[in-house]
Task: structure prediction
Amino acid sequence: MLEIRNLTKVYDDGTVALKNVSFTVAEGEFLIIIGLSGSGKSTLLRCINRLIDPTEGEILWNGVDIVKLEGDDLRKARRKIGMIFQHFNLIKRSSVLNNVLAGRLGYTSSKQSLFGRFSKKDIERAYKSMERLGITDQAKKRADELSGGQQQRVGIARALMQEPELILADEPVASLDPVLAHSILHRLETLNKEDNLTIICSLHYLDLVQKYSTRVIGLSYGEIVYEGSQKDIQAMTDEQFKEIYGEEAIRVGGGLEGDLTQVEGGAA
Amino acid sequence: MNNKKPKGSYMIEEERKPSMVSPIVAAILSAIVPGLGQILARAYKRGIVLFASFITIAGLLIWRVIATAKYDVGFFNKLTKSFRLEPMILILVILVFILWIWTISDAYKHAAQEDHITLGVLFLVIVIFFFLGWQIGGIAPAELISNIPDSAPLLGQVLWPWDAAIHYPKEIVTTAIEIQIPCTDELPVSEIPDEGSYISADPLCGELAELGGQPGSSIQIHGYGLIPNLETELWWKDQLSNDFRQRQGGEYITVITDENGDFEIEIFMPYALIPAGHLAQGYVIWEFQTRQIASVGEWTYSDELKLTTEKMIETIFIGMMATFFGIILAIPVSFLAARNLMSANGFTIAIYYFVRTILNIIRSIEPLIWALIFVIVVGLGPFAGIMALTVHSIAALGKLYSESIESIDSGQIEAIQATGANWVQTVMFAVVPQIIPPFVSFTIYRWDINIRMSTIVGMVGGGGIGFLLVQWIRLFEYRAAGLAVWFITVTVALLDYVSAEIRKNYV
Ligand SMILES: Nc1ncnc2c1ncn2[C@@H]1O[C@H](COP(=O)(O)OP(=O)(O)OP(=O)(O)O)[C@@H](O)[C@H]1O
Ligand SMILES: [Mg+2]
Result:
């Protein structure tokens, strides 16, 4: 479904963020990317939907090279790729509903957008998507009035509005506490399993990686230094994890899985 | 000097570089050219500062002497005259002399490498500049107090100008009786009206006074039913309709009516302007008049008040229109001046720097100067004021707007772009919501400034109340000027409050 070939990114200041990175992602995978801060995780994810233009290489998405796309074609590809951010990146002064609706912009004409209009269908879709994430009650609130966990769920609802085939999540839980981290990743897992959404997610915590990933890629200084299946990951000890990851690796803390439903009820 | 030593340490340093000249030579050189001795003693900075100060002080002092004693011939005469007119100049000359001596001894000490050299001589330079400034600035604190008796009434007019706001319509009410000159057998008949006021005279004729000859004959005048309790002027109107006031003993005389409007007075006939001998009929008829200045009808608002109100409204609208135009033009400009939007390639970066530079230049020129420019281009009037403030607003708002664009969160833009939104959608959804609050805040702030400035640009012909104020001050119409001052103060204070409230509640 997604094939990355020899991807290289050199920033204008000469920083080599990605070096000849190649890997493939099959449909329905929950691929987790780990790596030290500065290893190039964000750069890699942003190259896939072309928020960053790669310097070299190909990104084949259903047989089409995203790197070569321009204008409308690029936007059409983008709208099938949802993105979730560490800092949520919601429009802070707009309502939750408007934020969710923004996920529909790729399907809306400029004219309508000028007046901030969306079709009835899109509004229905937005409510469905908010319902799925348990934030319907917050629909009229301003986005920055919400808690961190709620904001990230708005972010996911927004991505869902795109009817994506792939979701890129750049450290989606790094600004959340451990309980909420599990809650959010659990949501993504549900989407991955129920909707057969492919997910590429960068993470820092070994227990989260072990629990949610179907495959793991380790980045170091812009190069892939580790590739492992779910089995490999389950077998991995903290020491091994630290080896590829560095000292920063930590566990969020186990034993929370059992309480998840309770946590979500409380957060909603 | 050793570079590693701390700054300023040369004053106490023991191994200074030796002076190039002996102390005596340094002193003599500094006596001829102040500072030269220090320079040759390797106190370069001190020498240069002393030299430059001396040249400047001498130049300014000579100018002041010449300007003070303009009409005297010969420099010495000018000098002594200026000492008398401006004692400060004498003090300055003495101080400069002390400075000269001090500079000489300073040069000697430097060349002799003495240890304790202070900055006192430089301090004296500052003192001299202070006194020069005092003299040039015409500073006279005593005038603040000595002028109070003269200025207090005028200031009072400015501070409490409301007499000028109201106007009572006045009219001159005249009552007349005919007097025949000289007396003949057929006297005019005076009829007593049934109602209203009238005058009676006894007799109804008289002889005019002759220059250097006999005095005028006396007539007993009675007035009835005039406006009561009012000062009443007495006038004559001769056969050629010339008006002149009755004098008695060289002074104009007036009577004051009693509570019934009556009065009584004995008058003496005035001098004839035309010799009586030329009279064709043998006599002429003059009219004797009483004139009273009476208020008629209700008071109305004065023309000054009306004009002030009109011009105040004009001023507010000058500020408002300038703000409108400023906003409309500043928005597109601000996009060009926002670094984050313009860093795509070399060409856009060039545009960014160009626009930024232009904005900075425009902003550094005061609205007052812009007003002068536009008065020349479009002539006196509000349009010139609007143009001046518009131009300045574009530059000021353009800068503030572009800075708020620069500070927007790029994460929000990325998130919207990632949904497949196009440029227009990204601007509408990610940029506009972020910049509207600062834009509104800056705009209200600018509106406030523009209304204040519109009175200022008015003073140089940019329309509005400023022009009026300047005119009234030049015409010494302090009451009217006071009205304008009151209007401006109240309006500005009000707008200040309103704009602060809006900004507080909105942002
Ligand atoms: N816009 C940029 N210009 C220049 N260098 C950049 C830019 N963005 C990132 N880099 C550099 O590229 C390298 C990879 O950065 P990237 O943000 O992809 O790392 P990361 O793995 O996401 O790190 P983190 O875990 O801290 O988010 C780093 O060395 C970073 O300093
Ligand atoms: Mg990152």
User: Anything to note?
Assistant: Chain B has 16 helices and twelve strands. Chain B touches chain A at residues 409, 411-412, 414-422, 424-425, 428-430, 433-434, 436-437 (CB under 8 Å).
